[in-house]
Design goal:
The structure is a homodimer. In chain A, the strands form 5 sheets. In chain A, strands 9-10-18-15-16-17 form a 6-stranded mixed sheet, sandwiched between helices. Chain A has about 425 residues and is α/β, with parallel strands linked by helices. Chain A is globular, with a radius of gyration of 22 Å. Chain A has 3 domains: about 5-125, Rossmann fold, CATH 3.40.50; about 130-165 and about 265-430, Rossmann fold (3-Layer(aba) Sandwich); about 165-255, Rossmann fold, CATH 3.40.50.1100. In chain A, helix 10 packs across helix 12 and helix 13 crosses helix 14 (about 390-400). In chain A, about 40% of the residues lie in helices and about 20% in strands. Chain A is built from 16 helices and 18 strands.
Chain lengths: ~425, ~425
């Protein structure tokens, strides 16, 4: 049995961003057949699954991972990803088998006018950034395990190039630009770690990075940007001023805007954390990730759920910037009029791309105060022996908080992966003390 | 051709510590045939090679490594280690081949009254400590590479159990005790890291550890000992008081003394650093190791030279406690009347076991001052993002010192492995600053 629609070649694919309704012949079961050769971006947000659809099988060559569909604006869980070999023949054969087994309707491709588009994060991202990014180590500590009453695994993204996980997304974004786009450079406005990461990735590609930084950013973060060759342009602290300044640079230079979180290339890049982490410690049943703009947790959640759909994804958020917690409670993106936390990397708000993923794939947001963050930071230095910034230590703070330890919901979370997201912190007071 | 002396069984071996002269039939070339089944200690210092001996071939089953012989109290370099399979037959066949090829005299075993004893550090140590010790990660940094003008590899022993490399030796020592010895516990006098490590290893074996600590030791080190269940007994700061107090504990308890450096079990345990490091980064051509009592650098040098005889071994030592530098210059163990350095872990002196190894296998001692140590520590925190103690950062200080960078001897050292030995440092001033 050979279906003629299989004759579509990969060349006929022209993008993941199209959206469409199911074909009129739509039935309860659907088989999606991917011809995606190598989407530049690596992720597109999933669109609505009509209520008539019961389940979806997706045939993907094994290098792809991370599927995300929505129904009624919620994550659609009844999806089965079936791996095939990369060869077109294998994909076709596998799809045919599913059709025979399930009686599903075939959705052959992404550009024939009747398909469900979906989110896909792929291994090409991992391959793309591999020559540049560090595979960061995972540390464990019996001392912290006994404090937490659980086995903890620490993914040390503070050791990532540029001192934070941000390099993964920045690197993916920059190396997925075509040469014409890349020549004019990139621009962003960032509180720091994304800025440093983008500067470094741009330097590696040999293109300019224009970085708009609010005047009140920590000195060490500005220094990082300069160290990596970024062109620093200061703005006022307000988001309006930051955006206006960035727009002016865009107009002046023709550079490409690379947002820090709300961007498919960024989300896909950060998702490589899960790929490494769950290979390094496959027994992990729960991931705890700092949340700010939601780029990291979106990528981490998509990739982790693709590998292990039963995995718990928890966000850790500071009390003084708890927009994600409020957004989840309100069922819509909720922004704050002001933020106040020592965790300077966690002051951004969710965006329209990250919000649906956080809403549907993040099981809970654990809110901690600054005192808990500092205590966790201290444990990182004194027990783990690593230098983390406040934003980086918040995952450990969440695991040690009453909100987590005393909640019976989490009693089954026994193997917890914590992303220590960054280590760019100003320790001037420490060095001054040695001069005495 | 089968030599009857091969009929000695492994059971006839009764210890590595015997010493003897060459047999009367001694000739210029010697073939040593090892029947060592599993020396508990893993290392015995080599004894004199008579002047009549030109070269020595040693047949060892592949699980052994680290050969060390002396002539005129100097390392005897004309030694060739030939690996065989573990099976006795293979060792015999290999030895026979050497005899045929070289016309050497055979020294069949270690207990027949006429042999050369030698130092041997073995893989059994690695197997013994593996269930307990961390395989610490190796970090790299483009930023530090460009400062140093070389490729640097950082072995993060600050992530070792107990916060320092000391756990390797302590663990080897404690788990090589037989049950009768072990029951009565262990005792040591230590400035801190060895004490914590010994406490932890003793706890893992379920035996008591009695720790004599000078009153002026940093608080965090005392806290570590207590955290790991060690019984703390304070002494005066002087070495005499420390030794007297330890001797009293020995008499009272019948415990086994485990010195911090000058001990074969300790040296062998620390040697596992090289085994891991050179497997993680085989391109390393130079190792830089902090030196204090010399236990770590002895083990590191023996193991590294066994793997790659051409490797450079450099010691890093603080100006205010430069006894190893002076000892090398004077050609004899030289102790200092007082020491003064921020590197509190590097105040001990070489011992009679570590000195010959340092004298003959350590190519040079690079001396740095406290200011250079603090600067290196800062780079570890701000660039590598790891919390090291002053003693732990000294290897980086040495690589960045004029004494190293401007010495043409080191121009060929391009892939440098630096052991960041520990991370137990009091950061109270940092945490106090957050309370403001």
């Amino acid at each position: 049995m050979r279906n003629p629609v299989f004759n579509l070649s990969p060349d006929s694919f022209d993008g993941l961003s199209e959206t469409n309704s199911l074909p009129p012949r739509g039935m309860g079961k659907v088989c999606v057949y991917s011809t995606i050769p190598d989407p530049t971006c690596g992720i597109t947000l999933g669109m609505e699954v009509p209520s008539s659809v019961e389940s979806i099988s997706v045939i993907l060559a094994t290098e792809y991972w991370g599927i995300f569909l929505l129904r009624d604006r919620k994550f659609f869980p009844a999806i089965k990803v079936i791996s095939s070999e990369t060869l077109m023949q294998s994909r076709e054969d596998t799809a045919n088998k599913v059709l025979q087994d399930t009686g599903a309707v075939l959705i052959p491709s992404f550009n024939d006018g009747h398909f469900i588009s979906f989110a896909i994060v792929n291994f090409h991202t991992q391959v793309r950034i591999k020559p540049f990014a560090q595979q960061t180590p995972v540390l464990t500590s019996d001392t912290l395990d006994s404090i937490a009453g659980r086995k903890l695994y620490f993914k040390c993204e503070c050791f990532q190039k540029g001192g934070a996980f941000k390099f993964r997304g920045a690197c993916n974004a920059i190396f997925s630009l075509d040469d014409d786009q890349a020549t004019k450079g990139v621009v962003t406005h960032s509180s720091g770690n994304h800025a440093a990461a983008l500067s470094l990735a741009a330097k590696l590609r040999g293109i300019p990075a224009y970085i708009v930084i609010p005047k009140d950013a920590p000195k060490c973060k500005v220094a990082n940007v300069k160290r990596y060759g970024g062109h620093v342009i200061f703005s006022e602290p307000s988001m309006q001023s930051r955006e206006d300044t960035a727009n002016k640079v865009l107009q002046d230079t023709g550079a490409v805007l690379i947002p820090s979180s709300n961007d498919g290339r960024i989300i896909s890049g950060q998702g490589t954390i899960s790929l490494e982490f769950l290979e390094q410690a496959s027994e992990i049943d729960t991931l705890i990730v700092p949340i700010s703009g939601g780029g990291m947790i979106s990528g981490v959640a998509l990739a982790a759920k693709a590998i292990n759909p039963a995995i718990h994804i928890l966000a850790a958020e500071p009390m003084g910037a708890n927009d994600a917690f409020q957004s989840k409670s309100n069922g819509r993106i909720t922004k704050l009029s002001e933020v106040n936390t020592i965790a300077d990397g966690l002051r951004a708000f969710l965006g329209d791309l990250t919000w649906p993923i956080v809403r549907d794939l993040v099981d809970d947001v654990i809110v901690v105060d600054d005192k808990e963050i500092i205590q966790a930071m201290k444990l990182c230095y004194e027990v783990l022996k690593i230098a983390v910034e406040p934003s980086g230590a918040i995952g450990l703070a969440a695991v040690l908080s009453d909100g987590f330890l005393k909640n019976p919901v989490y009693s089954e979370c026994n193997h917890i992966g914590i992303v220590l997201s960054g280590g760019n912190v100003d320790l001037g007071v420490l060095w001054n003390s040695f001069d005495k």
